[in-house]
Amino acid sequence: MNLKDALKGRLSPEEIESLGRSFEVIGDIGIIEPTGSLCRKKHEIAQALVSVQKHVKVVLMKTADVSGTYRLPQYEVIYEDKNRDFSWVPKAFRPKSAKETIHREHGCRFKIDPTKAYFSGKMATERGRISDMVRDGEKILCLFAGIGPFPIVVAKSKNVNITAIEINPDAIALFRENITLNKLTGKINIIEGDVGKILPQTSKNFDRIMMPAPKNAADYLEETLKKAKKGTIIHLYTFLGEEELQSIGKNIAERCKKAGKEVKILHTRKCGNIGPYHYRVVIDFRV
Fold this sequence. Notes:
With about 290 residues, the chain is an alpha/beta fold. The protein is about 25% helix and about 30% strand.
């Protein structure tokens, strides 16, 4: 049974259709995003989600879109099972509130609080794809690193040297916990600060650069290119409408050429819908 089936009899057919697939599960937390009149049915939606996703013990409802320096939404706890079991997690890392959880993917464990730092489990496939591409010995730069999912997934399976930049102090605190939780101390160097200010001060000649901040990563393309050498592979994430997909590779190549770098576009792929005909997209290219 899926969520729509579980809601039959609780919501009208029109309400079920308008709800769409607007939920995500991170660890044992389910996140729903009802809008308009559906907000009045939040408890019915939460109960249906819990009945379908048996491992979900907490349901958060998004109550406001992203805002502020760190672009975080606001959430309300609308369901909580007090008997959450984290006995499999070392005591020092166990969640202390309903809004914290432990998420598992690719053999890694992540402590997460979506009210403090952005994280999407829907990017797990993408993180695995990048990790599979990395070779031992690479020198890697990750911009907008958040709580560390991209660096940690890579470092867990490969012998690499990673520098990660993140501005949100709450994200960095979780990132540091996650490094320890995954026994990766010494493999990832975290730099706290604004990418625009920190990037010019970092070393050069990285083998691979990850830019997993679709909202504004492309704004830093020219400065990022200064940290690349011949053969560097860059993974740039952005948001695009359907009509922009065909031209994005050409546009990136032209911007790089104006910045003094010739690049080869290796791959362009959708890695998630964010709205009708609007996608999260990654462009892989080699300098």
